[in-house]
Amino acid sequence: MKRSAFRRLVNDLEESARIAGEQLREHKVRSLLTALGVIIGVWAVISIGIGINGINTGFRNSMSMLGDDHFYVQKFPWKDVGDDWRKYRNRPNLETSYAEELNEIIADTPNSGLMIAVPILSFQRGISYEDRSLNGIQMTASNADFSFVNTASIEQGRFFTPTEATSGQNVVILGAGVVKTLFPGEEDRAIGKRVKLARISFTVIGTLEEQGKFLGFASFDNQAILPLQTARKFFVGWRRWNGAEIRVVKKPETDREAARDEIIGAMRRVRGLEPGEENDFEVNASDAIEETIGPVKAGIAIAGFVITGLSLFVGAVGIMNITFVSVKERTKEIGTRRAIGARRSSILTQFLMEAVSICLLGGVIGLTLAYGSLFLVKHLLPTFPASLSFELMAVAFLLSVATGILSGFVPALMASKLEPANALRHE
């Protein structure tokens, strides 16, 4: 582009922006009402974006609590089983001894993709210290290998030793939430204190770092970890336990599906299932939850797309209509400008700029409302990781500009094609 042409374009844009600003000031209420569709559309697209980003962030954080390389061998699948729940309920309970058998199979398998299998018993009990107590705490009982499947780092203290695990010592590791409740203001002094689990005294040997809530609901911080032998001695006995599971860790380089297939094959050997018999266990992992939550995110995205599309369409029609009215009202002005030498492109730019200005006004108001929605979500759901990204604001800006150009182009083109003589005769 030549220097003179570039300078002329800049002048046209400056003049059009000035006229657009004057029109907005002269017709404040009309402009605001015209921009209503764009306001709703921008607010909707940003709000839906905030929601989906929050779900994705919360989901990634929650999946790290489960362990990306971990598999959970359990009785029930992590999905809605509907009317088949009786089939899963009637499956035989798992035994913690399966972990030892799985580890033997892993050790005997050349090039196995699995690292280790760890037994877990889960149940709930109350816990107390002096006059403070908590009910319904998630108890996790395991052996000394639990450190391989523990997704929370030790904040203070240590994990229990193989000797403490095999001899069933009364030692316990507390989650961050339990520590805060039992030792308010002196969390760093919990190590060595004696707490009671169902009136049985235990020594605190470790505390876990804070993990937060899984998908914003179930807290992973209200838990206590104790040796498996201790749990069997005092709480769950030696029978098969409904809350038993085996956690298996794959090697980092192993493909996820290959690891799952190897676990299924090993578990079938442990269970003694014949070829053709259906599995009577389930191998769960974080991808099952991802499959479950996927349709929810898709539903939110579709709803947002529909609301945004309808709002912007209504807004675009309104802006096109008001731009036609503006062209009609100012036909003589157009004729005068054309008569004194204004080019068609200058007229086109002027009315396009006015349409875009109305849309940008709507975009700014919509963005402000979205900020209000974000503040409200943070206040009502403080654990939900909602945030407004630069990408979302850029999308809102581009949508506003695109709506202005698309809705204002036809009336602006008609205005630019007016002949000076005919325009000046217009009444």
Task: Write up this protein.
This protein has 427 residues and is an alpha+beta fold. Helix content is 56%, strand content 17%. It contains 14 helices and 12 strands. The protein has a 6-stranded mixed β-barrel with strand order 2-3-10-5-7-6, surrounded by 4 helices. Strands 8-9 form a two-stranded antiparallel sheet. Strand 2 and strand 3 form a beta hairpin. The longest helix is centred in the C-terminal third of the chain and has 44 residues, at 286-329.
What percent of residues adopt helix (DSSP H or I)? 55-70%
- Structural class, from secondary structure content? alpha+beta
Number of helices: 14
Compute the average pLDDT: 85
Distance between termini?
39 Å
Biggest β-sheet: strands ordered side by side in the sheet: 2-3-10-5-7-6
Major sheet characteristics: 6 strands, mixed, barrel
Report the strand count. 12
Q: Which stretches are poorly predicted, pLDDT < 50 over at least 5 residues?
A: none
> What value does the Rg take, in angstroms?
33 Å
What gross morphology would you assign?
A: elongated
- Proportion of residues in extended strands: 15-25%
Secondary-structure element sequence?
A: HHHEHHEEEHEHEEEEEHEHEHHHHH
